[in-house]
Amino acid sequence: MSRTTDVLLTALAPAIWGSTYLVTTEALPAGYPVTLAALRALPAGLLLLAITRCLPPRVWLGRVFLLGAFNFALFWVLLFVAAYRLPGGVAATLGALQAMMVILMARGWLGTPIRAGAVVAAATGVLGVALLLIGPEAALDPVGIAAGLGGAASMAAGTVLSRKWQPLVSALSFTAWQLTAGGVLLLPLALIVEPALPPLSAINLAGLAWLGLIGAAATYAVWFRGVARLEPGAVSMLGMMSPVTAVILGWIWLGQSLSLLQGVGATIVLGSVWFGQRANRAPSTHAPPRPVSPQTNAA
Prior knowledge:
The protein has 299 residues and is mostly helical. The chain has helices at 3-17, 20-27, 33-52, 61-85, 88-96, 98-110, 116-133, 142-164, 171-193, 202-229, 232-238, 241-253, 260-279, 294-298.
């Protein structure tokens, strides 16, 4: 499969994640972020485990739970905190800093060289997201900013470590392991900090099914497949497709306005994503990380 196909397929994941805001606000009960995150992760992970029938070896459990925390549990909790305490545009702009963080983490953990073009693409993408989403009413809350930066760092760490630790299993199995671990971490937290969910309507159940089956199980399998095949910096730039999709869905589905400045911001984001794929592309002589078997890990 060509690299272009890998990029386009991987880009589907963040493009679909852009529907999360619409589904959450229009189809799910408000005030239960951790519980809904647990219900998004754990059933999807258990379903994938039942399909793949592949459990992580004991020596991989530490890594699996660490990745589940970074990619799901910690990331989703901090994301909700940022969303509650900051205007959506500010929270999304802080999240877009993930691409820059991935470049730095990949240098430290994978030895990936820092390319000037990749840094420029990441910085330009953040500017585009800011133009796309930040309005004049934007306010800065210290706790919200810390949560937004922490969420970006969590997802960045999960992306780089998912590239570094490649088990000899399919992307679907790797996704099942991480989703289940993230859900197991989220469930007791939800029981402690949030009240019980009210009776769920058919629309609520449909929203959870979308976020769990499509927005988690299917898309993260595609995402982790891309993480294994593409450079970490290139993959992280694709994450900027999410706010673009969110704005387009808000315009089409909710009748929200779309200004000229937002159009310019969306164009900048798409251009930075395209340039980021070229700037982050490794030379043909660069070999991808070798998958790690349980026996190698034990040794």
